[in-house]
Every structure is written in C-alpha cells, then in structure tokens.
User: Which sequence fits this backbone?
C-alpha cells in the first residue's frame, strides 16, 4: 500500500496502484473503532497526527485549572493528557466505545490516573454514565462524524454539562471545505459511514440540542473546524 499524501489521514486514506486516493471501507476503518494490533498502531498514529489540530482547537476555549472535563471519544489518549495539564487542579474523564482505545488511553495517561487526575472508561456518547451538570467542558476531537446519532450525542453532552458549560467539537474535515481530505471523506461517506456536516449543519445540530452562544471557526483551505456551544 502506498503512503497517503502529506496532510492526509494515513489510517483512513490509501493510494491505489493507479495513484488515486481512496477511503477504506467500514470493515477497515480503524479510525472509527480501533481493534487488535492494527488498532493499537492506528491509535499511536492518531496521537501523533491529530496533535497540532487539537492544539489549534483547544485555543478556542478557556480551560481553568479547577475544571472538570470530559473527552468524548478519547482515542489514544493524547488529548486527555493535554486537558489534564490545563485542568491541573481538576479532573479529566475520557470515554470511548472501543476497548482498544480505552486501553491505549489508560497506558498513555498512566501517571495521571495513578495520581487521581484522570479516569477513563468504556462508554458510548449516546448513553453517558455520568450525572447531570457534572462538567465544565466536554470535548470531541475527530469523533463526532462517526457517532450513530450526532443529535442524540449532543443532547447527552448537554445533559452532563454544568449550566454555562461548553461543548467543543474539533475536526480536520467538514463538508464543503476546499481540502483534499474533506473532499475524499465527503465522496466516500456512503461507503465509510462518515457523517460529513457543513458549517451550517454543525450550527443547526448544536442549536437543536439546546446550546446557546454557538461559535464556528472553519479553515476552508485546511478543512479544519471547531464548533462550540454553551449550556
């Protein structure tokens, strides 16, 4: 298999023998639900390739040291590590529906877990195992386009947010962006199951879930997007 183009996600895009870039099928999409040895390798690559995007996205919110934060779809755990460094006097929870992701996140954040700063568990965003009004911030990095029901996930997130709390979605692709990865994901969405949203659709879903003060920042040339709202 040839290497993906610079900036492309190597876990989700491949170059065939004719030089065309294509998306993997749902069976092969380890970015959606990593499993086994290939999943562990994918999670390692995700930690590396998503770091700059995550840093850019997190600059859109203020994270106080005493915050309680949830990272929904925590993947390989690097975002949790970044959040724990910011919320150094608070607590960071992570959830993922992939057992491989939970295991990888726990390994990556082993010291913080031993020190009581981080907790990671197997769970689904559509049925969060947390009480109402728990979190100051809920993040979702490179994940919401895989949720079976994005609206239901956002409603669950709003439920567990404290009044005035913020949801922040971060992604490197969105529908309508002038970027190779976004165009590929949009083209292959019917095959992969990826739910590509436009800027307006992000705004509409947040509003329908009950969020206020909705803010969208989209970099069309890169395909990067943040979507946030306040409870």
Assistant:
């Amino acid at each position: 298999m040839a290497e993906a183009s610079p900036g492309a996600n190597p876990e989700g895009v491949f170059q065939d023998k004719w030089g065309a870039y294509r998306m993997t099928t749902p069976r092969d999409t380890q970015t959606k639900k990593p499993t086994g040895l290939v999943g562990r390798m994918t999670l390692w690559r995700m930690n590396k390739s998503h770091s700059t995007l995550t840093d850019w996205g997190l600059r859109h919110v203020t994270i106080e040291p005493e915050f309680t934060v949830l990272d929904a779809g925590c993947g390989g755990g690097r975002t949790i590590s970044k959040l724990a460094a910011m919320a150094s006097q608070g607590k960071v929870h992570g959830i993922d529906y992939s057992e491989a992701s939970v295991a990888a996140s726990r390994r990556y954040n082993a010291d913080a877990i031993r020190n009581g700063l981080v907790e990671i568990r197997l769970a689904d965003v559509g049925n969060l195992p947390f009480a109402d009004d728990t979190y100051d911030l809920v993040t979702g990095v490179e994940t919401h386009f895989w949720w079976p029901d994005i609206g239901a996930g956002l409603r669950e997130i709003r439920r567990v947010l404290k009044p005035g709390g913020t949801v922040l979605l971060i992604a490197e692709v969105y529908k309508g962006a002038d970027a190779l990865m976004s165009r590929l994901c949009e083209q292959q969405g019917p095959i992969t199951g990826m739910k590509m949203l436009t800027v307006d659709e992000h705004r509409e879903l947040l509003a329908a879930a009950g969020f206020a003060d909705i803010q969208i920042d989209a970099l069309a040339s890169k395909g990067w997007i943040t979507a946030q709202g306040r409870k």
